[in-house]
């Protein structure tokens, strides 16, 4: 299976979180729907929190989605929340550099993640923005707003609320270091930068004429992720680092599945 294909399975999960604050009321995360059919795998075993971190293009999203389906877990893409806030900033003419305004905007926004059988949906104010948030202006904005410590605090508190019950595969940049430092299993998925760029180009069907430009933007976002003062992208000390450069998607998935099954049984391999 290529890095860009998912494997559909009859295991349906849906969990949404509304993160909204109105006026000066505190922000209260509310699960407004939570229903999911357990796969035979999840049975009565312990529901883990699995954190998958790493740079863009390492294959996190595909692996996290497939792993979640295998275990009957919910797959939450933390990056989609940064993207949704960046889109909200664009639509409200809020500067990506104005931390205070961004946090205010986050408080008054309704960002929902909705994992479904056909992939994750992101809703902003009830509108499906899943496709829009992958566009280049939002991608750039998400990277820029993610440097602000208070924006990150806002995100982390909501992400914790979403994953607290376990049975979740959450992917991002700081899940194992900040969001769930006690996660049952932490994976840091990495790959050679050139391979990551190639995967990203193929995934997004980037035209040859703009490929060099898009690759340069990816490198800049990488640099920003790794060098920002607040929660830079690093592997947690107790993370299992997997370099997927020369591995197939199935091999990576198999390795993580083995680790997760061991953790379910209380073992470390
Ligand atoms: O994973 P992604 O490309 O969708 O993430 C979008 C941006 O959000 C990315 O530039 C880094 C940032 N991000 C972050 O700082 N921390 C996370 N946990 C997830 C994403």
Overview of the structural elements:
The chain has 269 residues and is α/β, with parallel strands linked by helices. It is 42% helix and 20% strand. It is built from 9 helices and 10 strands. A 5-stranded parallel sheet has the order 4-8-3-9-10. The protein has a 3-stranded antiparallel sheet with strand order 5-6-7. The longest helix is centred in the C-terminal third of the chain and has 20 residues, at 208-227. The two termini are 26 Å apart. 42% of the residues are buried. The site of 2'-deoxycytidine-5'-monophosphate has 14 residues, from helix 2, helix 4 and helix 8.
CATH superfamily: P-loop containing nucleotide triphosphate hydrolases
**What integer value in Å does the Rg equal?**
18 Å
Q: Supply the helix-strand structural class.
A: alpha/beta
Bound molecules: 2'-deoxycytidine-5'-monophosphate
Keywords:
about 270 residues, alpha/beta, three-stranded antiparallel β-sheet, 10 strands, binds 2'-deoxycytidine-5'-monophosphate
Structure in a nutshell:
The chain has helices at 60-71, 78-91, 99-107, 136-145, 149-163, 175-179, 193-204, 208-227, 249-264; strands at residues 13-20, 28-36, 49-53, 74-77, 111-116, 119-124, 127-128, 168-172, 185-190, 240-243. It has 269 residues and is α/β, with parallel strands linked by helices. The chain is globular and about 50 Å long.
């Amino acid at each position: 299976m290529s890095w860009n294909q998912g494997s559909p399975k009859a295991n349906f999960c849906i969990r949404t979180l509304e993160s909204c604050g109105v006026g000066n009321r505190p922000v209260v995360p509310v699960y407004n729907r939570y229903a999911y059919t357990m796969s035979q795998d999840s049975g009565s075993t312990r529901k883990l929190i699995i954190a998958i971190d790493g740079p863009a293009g390492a294959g996190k999203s595909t692996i996290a989605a497939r792993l979640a389906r295998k275990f009957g877990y919910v797959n939450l893409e933390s990056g989609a929340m940064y993207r949704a806030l960046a889109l909200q900033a664009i639509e409200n003419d809020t500067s990506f550099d104005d931390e205070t305004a961004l946090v205010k905007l986050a408080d008054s926004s309704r960002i929902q993640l909705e994992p479904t059988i056909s992939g994750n949906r992101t809703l902003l104010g009830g509108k499906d923005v899943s496709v829009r948030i992958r566009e280049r202006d939002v991608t750039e904005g998400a990277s820029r707003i993610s440097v602000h410590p208070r924006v990150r605090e806002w995100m982390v508190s909501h992400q914790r609320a979403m994953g607290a019950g376990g049975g979740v595969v959450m992917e991002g940049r700081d899940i194992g270091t900040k969001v769930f430092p006690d996660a049952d299993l932490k994976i840091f998925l990495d790959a050679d930068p050139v391979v990551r760029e190639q995967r990203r180009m193929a995934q997004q069907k980037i035209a040859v004429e703009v490929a060099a430009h898009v690759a340069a933007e990816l490198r800049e976002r990488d640099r920003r992720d790794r060098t920002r003062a607040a929660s830079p992208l690093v592997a947690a000390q107790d993370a299992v680092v997997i370099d997927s450069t020369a591995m197939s998607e199935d091999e990576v998935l198999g390795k993580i599945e083995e680790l997760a099954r061991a953790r379910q049984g209380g073992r470390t391999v």
